[in-house]
Structure formats: C-alpha cells, structure tokens
Input
Amino acid sequence: MSLIVQKFGGSSVANAERVMNVARIVTNTYKEGNDVVVVVSAQGDTTDDLIEKAMEINPKPSKREMDVLLSSGEQISIALLAMAIEKLGYPVISLLGWQAGFVTNSTYGSARIKKIKTDRLKNEIGRKNIVIVAGFQGVCKYDDVTTLGRGGSDSSAVAIAAAMHADRCQIFTDVEGVYTADPRKIQNAAKLDEITYDEMLELATLGAQVLNNRSVEIAKKYNVELEVLSSLTRKPGTIVKEATQMERMFIRGVTKDTNVARISIVGVSDVPGIAFKIFSKLAAKNINVDIILQSVGRGNTKDIAFTVGKGNADETIDALSSLDFLKDTKINCDTDIAKVSAVGAGMESHPGTAAAMFEALYSEGINIQMIATSEIKISVLIDARDADRAVAAIHGAFFPEE
Ligand code: ADP
Ligand code: ASP
Ligand code: MG
Output
C-alpha cells in the first residue's frame, strides 16, 4: 500500500463540475488501494477577489487580518471537495491547516512551515479516510492563522509528502506539466519530461508560476520527487527530481517576472562601506534584493542600482530615505520593468549562451538595462512592455520551430 499526496490548484476546483472531476481522480487513486492525502487551493480567482474586497475597505490592512481573510478561500474548497467525495460514497474528512498540524512562524502573509504535527493526519489515514487538507495555511505560536504566500498550497503538499514520507507527490494543475516557457503565451513551448530541482527552483523563482519556489526548496531538501500534471487530461506530466541520468539540456526554459522594481541611488559617496550599510539596512527589514549593479566611480561619487519585489518598493524607498549618508543622493524607483531569464544546467558548458540570448533581444530592438548570471541562469532586466516579445524571441532562438 502506498501513500499518495495529490494537490489541486485553484483552476482545478474552480466550479462544481471541476470539483467533481477532482473527486473522481482522488477516489480512483483510493480505489486502487492507496492512502490519499489531498491538498487544495481556493477556487478559481477567489484569493484575488478576497484581496480586492479587503482593498475596498482598507488599502493597508494588517497582515494578520489579511491572513484571516485569505485563508477562508481554501476552507471553502476543502468542504466542497469533501462533499463531492461523500457523494461518490467514500470515507472522507476535511481539515484546516491547523487541524492538519501545520505549524508556521508568525510572518503573516508569507509564513514558513516550521513543522507538521502528523498525529491527526496519521489517525485519519488509519481510519481509512481520504484526508482533504486546506493548502496555503497554518497556525503560529500566537495561535493565529497564517498564510504561506501566493501559490503556497504547493508548499503545503510537498511538506506533507516530506513529513509523511509519501510514496508519491502529484501536483495537478491546468497545464500538462512544466514547459520550456509559459504554454499559454508561447505556442511552441514544449513539455519537459523531467527537470532537476535546481533548474525548477530557478524557473519558479524567476516567474514560472506553475510551481511555487518554496515548494521546490522543500522538495529538494527532503528529496521528494514531484510530478506536475494536468487535472483535465490523463497524460504523463513532468517529473521534478535530483539530477541523475537526466539529459543535460542546454536551456531548460525561458521565463519572465514582472513583479520587479528597480531602485537606483544616484550620487553615492565613493568610499568603502556604503554598499554594506545600504544592504544591511534592507536585510534588517527583511527585504530581498536581487540584481545589484554599481557604476564605476566618477569624481567622488558612484551610482548603485538594484531590484526588489514590487511589493517591497515603498518600504525600500522609506528605508533608504532614513539613511543620513544618502541625504544628498537622488533615489529613483522604476516599476515598469521585467526580468526575463533563460535557465538550464547545461549552459555552464556552452560559452555562447549569453551571446545567443543578447542577439535575440538585439534582433527585436530590445534594450537591456541590467544583467545577472549564475551557473544555470542568465537574467536581463528590460522594459515591462517588451517582456512578452523578449520571451518569444529568446525561446525562438533556443527552441527553433521545426
Ligand atoms: P494552480 O492554480 O494549479 O496552482 P497556477 O496558475 O499557479 O496553477 O500555475 C499554472 C500556470 O502556470 C499555467 O496555467 C501557466 O500559464 C503558468 N506557467 C508559467 N510558466 C510556465 C511553465 N514554464 N510551464 C508551465 N506552466 C507555466
Ligand atoms: N490560494 C492561494 C493563492 O491564490 C494559494 C495557492 O493557490 O496556492 O495564492
Ligand atoms: Mg499555483
């Protein structure tokens, strides 16, 4: 007998018909003699709708109350799916995050899972129940409900698979797997049979929404093999796992991220310690900084530019404005930008990758504002309005149409 964790995203449970479809997938797995734990997200656009409702009332609500609100979306889904499974005649129980033992830290809005107390899950499985767990939520040491950040249900599923030593962890979504680019935007994007944790982590971090990046971190840490597949078709999906015999593809995927703000500080004193003071201030505020560029000094000054998530832009400006040694500088913020990236473990051994990517951008007349590279990715910062064209051009260069 195997334990199988199945996660269904918002579009897979968007309406009654889709909920019944999921109930059938789950009960078929159970019928085959498996124990099944199911994690579900809020239906369709529920989470976005809830955010909108909050903004109508208070554009700056406390993160705690936001979590109380947003966690309600998943509560609806678990109850409806449990009812659908009851209707098909199978034993089932739905559990909220705290009931399923999810303990998180108290960073409301993007809480991290600290542990899962698995007793209840084990008891319910022991009673032969199909267990339906609300994704995206847990409880912190203050007994408050927390949420894990957008797309966090993927992490809930992978964390359960790790804690329960599940035999399989399937992430069902609305596309047939992980593609070389967003299949809704790029027509000849190809489905990948396999991808390594490291490549998937880069793709997810750099904007490929199909898996949440923390879920990939957890999968890598606990060596949970993932299968990403469609809840609407019956086709094999993409396996995410440690690199083994996998073909080292030169480029595994191209992705874009428009959730980026570029902050530039013009006219910073060209003396030691400035970068340290700026970035330690931001670190103390828990602000994640991505691409950093420092200009060559001219006279006694230089410029420093870097990117942060759009949601952190205001806080970053406030933090910088409070630094006395920056009072004579000019601080700018540009949010009409996008980061476009190519990811692939094989690029390390292909010296021409960056040149091919820049040529694709040049052929579209797209200007590059910043560049960042690692062993397995190249990212460029460009105007947001060029982003889709850039992805298509880069994808076309690496995956030419046959
Ligand atoms: P779910 O509701 O199941 O969690 P998401 O909307 O979070 O689904 O993620 C699935 C979406 O991710 C797809 O509909 C697709 O448009 C998008 N996507 C972006 N990049 C990729 C990619 N490289 N491969 C597959 N899907 C991608
Ligand atoms: N419902 C949450 C969101 O929309 C969590 C998830 O879908 O994974 O972000
Ligand atoms: Mg998702």
